[in-house]
């Protein structure tokens, strides 16, 4: 296992600055996920760590050694790409061992490493098959095994599940998490899929336009998003936002919405953020709305409410029948809201928020 430290890292491609003075420390043995939309720089950052893209400034340290200009083969990493990139004429065993054979590793050591990786990835019975005889999930496991046999200090994954169907993604996601628990290895994983990030990560790095927006555990980035971008990117459906202001007495007002925060302060504009699961439809609730859309999701439903012309999404459990145009009562858990500065987009602290919320529809 090795730690990874990025210090003031710059990456420029085609004259365009993709990564700008980025600092990041990856702890030894953790599963770090780089999460963000397409074009945010997460894959470029991963390829820079691997040495596949040359950095234009700063330093990349792996295991305490500066690897900024070291050949990829000497960085002590194993990498899994989005594409399987398996040799079609070679068996699973030959595909997994190819890099070791090229490097001149002894046959007995190659056999030990391949058998060990195959056992962890449930590939033992498939070692003599060729890629054409494998399913998509099996091929991706072979690609992962090819990285594991390197017995590297750091493993890098570049959206390895994105080409698989939903069931295979779920199955391999579970296997990857179990694999990390067995190995205890340092893993850095790139994805745009928030479900993968939330389920796999020890910590998540949310990226946008080549910059880090927030680093934290899955619970931290979901429950206490650092800014409007993180709040809106995480969650399905996304967080509800209501623009308004906070007065000198610490009361948020946004149109018909009033929320006592419990602490006095200076007047300021603010955006109130409410997760859908923190809006509860219940008989006798203090608030009133009208259903505009119901989206069945299996174990729950996403219900959209019209609140005085403002659309709010909420998550409903249970079997209560709901249909468009139904009038409903509901309540908002004011202790779970977030507040943001509308100009900078940064989070305001909301500690001590009152549980009283009054809304006139």
Q: How would you characterize this protein structure?
A:
Residues 4-234 form the ABC transporter domain. This is sn-glycerol-3-phosphate ABC transporter ATP-binding protein UgpC. It comes from Massilia eburnea. One of its GO terms (cellular component) is ATP-binding cassette (ABC) transporter complex, substrate-binding subunit-containing. Keywords: ATP-binding, Cell membrane, Membrane, Nucleotide-binding, Transport. By secondary structure, this protein is of the alpha+beta class. The protein folds into two domains: 4-230, P-loop containing nucleotide triphosphate hydrolases (Rossmann fold); 238-359, Beta Barrel (OB fold (Dihydrolipoamide Acetyltransferase, E2P)), CATH 2.40.50.140. Helices cover 23% and strands 34% of the residues. The strands form four sheets. It has a seven-stranded antiparallel beta sheet. Strand 12 (251-254) and strand 13 form a beta hairpin. Helix 2 (92-102) crosses helix 3 (107-120), helix 2 (92-102) runs parallel beside helix 4 and helix 3 packs across helix 4 (136-148). The termini are far apart.
């Amino acid at each position: 296992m090795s730690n990874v430290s990025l210090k003031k890292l710059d990456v420029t491609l085609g004259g365009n600055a993709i990564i700008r003075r980025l600092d990041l420390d990856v702890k030894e043995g953790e599963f770090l996920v780089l999460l963000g939309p397409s074009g945010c720089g997460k894959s470029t950052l991963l390829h820079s760590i691997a040495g596949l893209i040359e950095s234009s400034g700063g330093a990349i340290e792996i295991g305490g050694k500066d690897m900024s200009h070291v050949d990829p083969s000497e960085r002590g990493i194993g990498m899994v790409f989005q594409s399987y990139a398996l040799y079609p004429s070679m068996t699973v065993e030959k595909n997994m061992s190819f890099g070791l054979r090229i490097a001149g590793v002894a046959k007995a050591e190659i056999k030990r490493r391949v058998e060990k990786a195959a056992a962890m990835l449930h590939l033992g019975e498939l070692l003599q098959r060729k890629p054409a005889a494998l399913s998509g999930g099996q091929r991706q496991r072979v690609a992962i095994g090819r990285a594991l046999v390197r017995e590297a200090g750091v493993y890098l994954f570049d959206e390895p599940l994105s080409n698989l169907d939903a069931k295979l993604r779920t199955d391999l996601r579970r296997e990857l998490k179990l694999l990390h628990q067995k190995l205890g290895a340092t893993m850095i994983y790139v994805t745009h899929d928030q479900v993968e990030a939330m389920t796999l990560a020890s910590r998540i790095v949310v990226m946008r336009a080549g910059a880090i927006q927030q680093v934290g555990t899955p619970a931290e980035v979901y429950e206490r998003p650092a800014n409007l971008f993180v709040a809106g990117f995480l969650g399905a459906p996304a967080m509800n936002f209501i623009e308004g202001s906070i007065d000198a007495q610490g009361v948020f007002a946004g149109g018909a919405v009033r929320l006592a925060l419990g602490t006095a302060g200076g007047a300021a504009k603010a955006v109130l953020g409410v997760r859908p699961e923190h809006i509860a439809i219940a008989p006798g609730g203090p608030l009133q709305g009208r259903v505009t859309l119901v989206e069945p999701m299996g174990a729950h439903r996403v219900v959209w409410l019209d609140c005085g012309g403002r659309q709010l999404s909420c998550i409903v459990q249970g079997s209560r029948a709901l249909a468009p145009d139904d009038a409903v009562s509901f309540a908002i858990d004011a202790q779970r809201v977030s507040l943001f500065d509308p100009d900078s987009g940064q989070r305001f602290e909301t500690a001590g928020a009152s549980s009283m919320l009054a809304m006139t529809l």
